[in-house]
């Protein structure tokens, strides 16, 4: 039987992948970061809506890129095909060593915190226990993605339903209290005295972290059924669903909890339930933890495809473009991340990690949508079944790059570390990748690759799927 990645992602699974990736730890931990850096309830709600609108713009741009460029790989392949090999490798370098492990660590830590919350309430769970449970959850998802594409996709669909149920359990009691006239927490909602403009980029980072995931279908483009139709449809429906859900969830939070309660809470959803819905105090944290579990599953599922495609394009060791001969999963690419994620979970803090990886992520997303403008200019003859107005990629790119530039002033230490991580890829590219691609010589990893290939039972893809 031929060994290649099958087209197993239907429209329902694509929708579940997007919902499952967006609705995760973000809506349950980011409200604190958004409120802290926006200064007031009213401005924080404006930030949440603006982040949703910005996410829709970005999602529409990526939907068009997904119909113009037929390879999997997401940000990486779009930057490679439009802006060239150097910026695409810098993205890959930053994504592997900073963006993805930090993102996975944030979600894993949120999973561990919410999973243990019912057992230690009203006290905070011990940090070592949180980190241990976080790693156990991550390793479980890693094993599942190594075992079966179908089961990973089915789990994502089931957990997407759990995520929407978790949001509903927060929205319904909050809306009931609001209808009864509990509006005291919205007095002076737009207090300008507490607004600090130089912190707004960090508020946007926290909000966009909660929405991040709208680009996930672009990573598995070759495994999608009818991608020209299903990518735009899944993107539009899922992003609108999440915007509505997030706005209602935040209104519910503020209806029940005051500003100081949100800022003081290590787990906002748990504090909400303690105040509004005590009968479900042990249920909601578990639902939130399962929501984070689904986000971990979606992240591993999609990023392994980036490493797979980068290896196929010659910018990553060849072992990672191989597929298990029986499971038909990109096993080496799935397994590669666990040492870095383990290290970041052990030493990291959620909010510092969030600022650390957000700089690099939004820099390269801005470059990818800039690449859409470039690709349109270079290939005016190319027919795309889905096309967005030109002002959408232009405005999205400008906002992304402006926010990235402003963040240097807001959080210079973490942003400088992220910038240094990106720039450290320059010598690696010119000393190894560029030289190897120019000379087309055998990879220095050839003999190690051969031994690992036998050990892991993996081979190169036999059929092109793009």
Automatic annotation (TrEMBL):
Q: Where does this protein reside within or beyond the cell?
A: Membrane
Q: Does the keyword Transmembrane helix apply?
A: yes
What is the protein name for this chain?
XCT protein
Q: Where are the transmembrane segments?
A: 12-29, 41-63, 75-99, 119-141, 161-182, 202-220, 232-256, 276-296, 331-353, 359-376, 388-409, 415-433
Q: Does the keyword Metal-binding apply?
A: no
Provide a Gene Ontology MF annotation, just one: L-amino acid transmembrane transporter activity
Q: Which UniProt keywords apply?
A: Membrane, Transmembrane, Transmembrane helix
Checking InterPro entries in the record gives:
AA/rel_permease1, AminoAcid_Transporter
Q: How does it sit in the membrane?
A: Multi-pass membrane protein
Q: Which GO terms describe its cellular component?
A: membrane
One Pfam family of this protein, by short name? AA_permease_2
């Amino acid at each position: 039987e031929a060994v290649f990645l099958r087209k197993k992602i239907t429209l329902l699974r694509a929708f579940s992948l997007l919902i499952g990736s967006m609705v995760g730890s973000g809506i349950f931990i980011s409200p604190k970061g958004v409120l802290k850096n926006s200064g007031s309830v009213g401005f924080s709600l404006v930030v949440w809506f603006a982040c949703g609108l910005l996410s829709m713009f970005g999602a529409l741009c990526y939907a068009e890129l997904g119909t113009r460029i037929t390879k999997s790989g997401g940000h990486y392949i779009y930057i490679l095909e439009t802006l060239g090999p150097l910026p695409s490798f810098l993205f890959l370098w930053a994504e592997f060593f900073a963006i993805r492990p930090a993102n996975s660590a944030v979600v894993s830590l949120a999973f561990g915190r919410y999973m243990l919350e019912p057992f230690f309430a009203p006290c905070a769970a011990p940090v070592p226990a949180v980190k241990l449970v976080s790693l156990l959850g991550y390793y479980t998802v890693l094993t599942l993605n190594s075992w079966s594409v179908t089961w990973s996709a089915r789990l994502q669909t089931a957990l997407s339903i759990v995520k929407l149920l978790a949001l509903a359990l927060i929205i319904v009691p909050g809306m009931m209290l609001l209808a009864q006239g509990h509006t005291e927490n919205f007095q002076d909602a737009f207090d300008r005295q507490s607004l600090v403009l130089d912190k707004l980029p960090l508020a946007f980072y926290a909000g966009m972290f909660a929405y991040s995931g709208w680009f996930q279908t672009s990573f598995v483009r070759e495994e999608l059924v009818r991608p020209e139709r299903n990518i735009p449809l899944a993107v539009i429906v899922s992003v609108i669903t999440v915007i509505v859900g997030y706005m209602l969830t935040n209104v519910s939070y503020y209806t029940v909890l005051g500003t100081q309660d949100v800022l003081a809470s290590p787990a906002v959803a748990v504090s909400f339930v303690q105040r509004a819905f005590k009968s479900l105090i042990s249920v909601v944290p578990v639902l939130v933890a399962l929501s984070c579990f689904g986000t971990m599953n979606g992240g591993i599922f999609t990023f392994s495809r980036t490493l797979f495609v980068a290896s196929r394009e010659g910018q990553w060791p060849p072992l990672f473009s191989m597929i298990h001969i029986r499971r038909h999963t990109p096993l080496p690419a799935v397994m590669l991340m666990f040492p870095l994620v383990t290290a970041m979970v052990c030493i990291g803090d959620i909010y510092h990690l969030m600022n650390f990886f957000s700089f690099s992520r939004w820099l390269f997303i801005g470059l990818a949508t800039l690449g859409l403008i470039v690709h349109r200019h270079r290939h005016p003859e190319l027919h795309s079944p889905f096309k967005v107005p030109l002002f959408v990629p232009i405005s999205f790119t400008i906002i992304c790059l402006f926010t990235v530039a402003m963040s240097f002033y807001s959080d210079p230490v973490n942003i400088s570390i992220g910038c240094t991580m990106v720039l450290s890829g320059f010598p690696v590219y010119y000393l190894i990748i560029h030289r190897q691609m120019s000379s087309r010589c055998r990879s220095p990893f050839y003999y190690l690759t051969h031994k690992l290939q036998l050990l892991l039972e993996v081979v190169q893809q036999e059929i092109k799927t793009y």
